[in-house]
Each structure stands twice: as C-alpha cells, then as structure tokens.
Fold these 3 entries.
Entry 1:
Amino acid sequence: MSDSASSENPYGTPTTTGPAPIRSFQSQLNTLIRGLLKVPFLSGIVGKRLATLHVVGRKSGAVYDVPVAYTVHGGDLLIGTALRPWVKNLQGGAQVRLSRGRAPETFTATVYTDEQHVLELFAVIARDNKQNAKFNGIGYLPDGEPSKADIYQTWQQGGVVIALTPAEPMARVHRPSR
C-alpha cells in the first residue's frame, strides 16, 4: 500500500481511532482466560464466543494457546484480529486445533489479508459480536450496521480475518420430526 493510499479512506471518516493497542497486562489476562475456558461449566459463562486456539509454531514446533473470539458463519468459524506473530503460523492452509469447552476440534485455517475479504468478513463478525468489534476498533452507524470506514481503517492497520473450516464436518443435530 502506498503512503498516499494509507491516509485515504474511501468509505469516509471512521467513528473510532482504530483497534485497541495490546495492553501491558494482556499476557496475564490471556492466562486467566485460558484457565477459565478449560473448566466446562465456566467456559460458557466466560464467553459463548470464546475459545482457545492451539497454534503450532512453523519453526519451533512449540504450541501456543491463544484465546480468541469467534463467529460461526456458513459452517466456518471466523476470527477477526490483527496480524500478530502467531497468525503467520496459520498461513498456507495450516491445520489447527480449537477448544470450545470440550475436546479440541481440528480445522483448516485460511488467513484473509486482502481488502475485499477482510471488509466483508469483519462486517459479519461485527454484526455478531459487538465486544469483538469494539476491541478491533469498529463502531456502528445509526442504523446499527458496522461502519465500513472503521472496518477499512482496521484493515489498513493490519486487521486480518481467519476462517477455520472443520477438518471433518461438524456434527449436525438430528431433530426427529413430530
């Protein structure tokens, strides 16, 4: 992106200053959240849309447990975040494990960094999870829709969307007919 393009927002003036900076206590907070997400009855209280992503380092092979907020969309799980170092380990269709208060599930990761996908998918996430939108610097218009100018600003500042596709189709709930 060129310097001139980085200062222009084709969708107007953002309603926020952008994604929240990582706080100095984020590591301790992540440790606490990871612990709470391991306790079955507490995981639902901590957050219905929170899970632990188990990311394997490409070079080190070390496993990094990252608490993430997710949105279910079209059979996939969407995670909106900044391009943090751990995200690079998911590029290229990496297999990843995710724990949602039960046994870890295996997914194939797709990392979207392009404008079109990030704007479209971050809008889906923002409609579903206002707290995640706030954390990522996305506000809302008077009609309740997420601000496209804010989503564009988030993308300009390194926002990406990770789509997790189940390695095996998620079990469908069978409801007997009446």
Entry 2:
Amino acid sequence: MNRTRTARHTQAERTRASLLWAAATVIGRRGYEATSLADITAVLGKPKTALRYHFDAKAEIARALLDAEYRRWEQMHELVDDTNRTGLAVLVTTLRTFLADSGSGPYQRAAISLLLDAPLIDADLPAPPFTAQQLLSEYLLEAREDGEVPADADISSAVNGIIDATLGVVLRYRLEPDVDLEERAEPLWSWSLMGLGVPRPHALLEGIRAIPLPPNEIETARLS
C-alpha cells in the first residue's frame, strides 16, 4: 500500500513538474498575457483539464515558477559567495553563472518574462530574495573599496547598464535556446566595465568562468 501511495505521489510530482516546464516554455517565448492554459497543456498534448488537479489558475503557475526560480537565485548567490572572490571577480562570476543557467531549462526566461509582465498580472506574486540592482551594487561597491574601480566611479549607471545588457541578451535570444548567451553579453559587459574605469575589462572577463550549479529542481522532478 505504501509503495502504491509513493508511486502515485511521484507520478503527481512528475506531472506537476511537466506542467511547469510546459508553462515556462510558452511564457518564456510569448509572455504571460499571451499565454493561455490551453497553450500550456497543448505542449504536452493534453486537454486543459489536465491542469486542474495541480493549479486552479494561471496565476498559480506564475507563482510556482517564480518561487522555484527565486530558490535557484538564492542557491546561486550562496555558491558564488562561497568562492571568496573579490568584488569584480564575484560580479563577473555571478553574471556568467546566471546566463549559463539558462541552459538548465526554460525557467529563467519565463521568470524574467513574468517579472516584466508583473504590472499586468492580477495576482499577488512572490517577492524576490534580492534585486539585481542590490546584488550588483554590493559587488561594485566592494570593488571600489578594494581599489578595483576608481573612487569616483558611477556605480549606479554601471549597474543599470550591466542589468540591461544581461536581460536584453536573455530576451533577445529567447527563441534561440542554443545561442551562447555569455558570448553575446561579453562585449556589452566590457563596455560597462570600461565606463567604470576598469583596465583591460576584456581580459578580466576572459579569465573568469561560470561555476556549476546543482540540477534544476523542476527538471529533476520532471525527469525522475
């Protein structure tokens, strides 16, 4: 009896994860408003009613995707911080790891689309553990304290430029999952770092790689 219940629970978790994968795939390409429940289940070849056992509304799917992605961000932040790198090095490591993680599934692209569409979503969405502005500002202020960037460097403008470049690359190539996002973003990051007064930013970028992250929790459940 216990084995039967365990098998049913595992199957339910696998189905839920498959629905989240399908939702992330469509939302990442079209955005939240342009995605219907029928669009989501069509990816799996199932009727719309297949969603009802797991999610009562599209907004619940949005919340589940964001919750999972925020846990991923916290995990990434902790692992990057554990490298004990300096301000600029931890900044570049974070950027590279964030873009490299886009290869773990459609979840990152969907989360970014949901954040951009948040003003249009009539539901309470979870708050992120930190904002990109807070995190990158922290790293660049540390870099300034350590003398890696000039004391009069415009941290705010640099942070905005780096964020715009990084998210812009994710959205620009959201229909081309095989594109190397880090390669596309490197020239844009280099310009932002050059504007900060960082000497030879290209060499800095070339010398730092992304760190590996554990498997994505939704993918793990979906493929279990």
Entry 3:
Amino acid sequence: MPNARLTMDVKNKLDCLINSLYKQYDTKNHEKIESALANVLKACSNTCLENGVPIKGKSNKLTMSSLWEIKHACEYVEKNLPEANTCEMYGFNSKIKSELNFLLKGVENRIKIEWEILNEGTRNNPTLRDGLMERLRDPIDGHVLGLTKNGALESNI
C-alpha cells in the first residue's frame, strides 16, 4: 500500500473544505450546502488534478499532483467527517461517504487503466509515458505506483 499521508498544506485545505461544508449544513441553506458539498467532491476528483479547487479564505487553490494524491484525499475526507449527532446528519454523512466511495472506485479504476497503458503502450511515446508517470507518482515518496487489474499494487522501481 502506498504511503497514505498527505502534505500538511493539502490536509489543511481539505479541513477547510470540510469545515465550510458543515458550517453551511448548519445554516440549512440548500443551495449553499450543495455548493460546499460540490467543492469537497471536486477536491477528491480529477477536477482537482486538472484545475484545482478554490478554498474560501485561502489565497491559492487546492491542487493535486497525482491520482494517488486524489485517492488519499478521498480517504482522508471520509475519515475526517464530523461525528453525526442527529439522524439527519447521519443521513447527510452517509450521502457524502457514498459519493466519496464512488469517486474512490473511479480513481482506482483510472490508476489501473493508466498503469496498464504505461506498461504496455508507451515505449515509442516518451511524452505520453512521462505524463502517465507524473499522474501515477505518489506525492510523498515519489515512487510511480499502479494497480493491476486484480487490484495488486505494483511499482516501477
């Protein structure tokens, strides 16, 4: 399993997104809740890899450097949701966890596909190979990691 840690900057920005979501949840303003939820989910998707996600109160966006970082972010957000103290909040947390699980499966599938392409089809295209290696690089230890079709972890080192 790759190193599941995130940089402190990424953790702080994810915490800001989670806090913002639950502040909006307390207001019961449906539009603001949906907007805050969308930002949390964008932070755990390819959107963050490609465009970044703005963080209220921060001067720079949250951006991810690889698919592994997105995978770690999904896991971090899921583990750091506030405890539900009402049935309504329990349902809200369940909805978020369901969405995060969906995103996590998508990222894992993307890792498997890109790993397969990297290992089979990039020998004659160094530009494609370099791009895939960056998308599959673990942000903490720098290793290029992939998942095989059966879910086993592989490294190119």
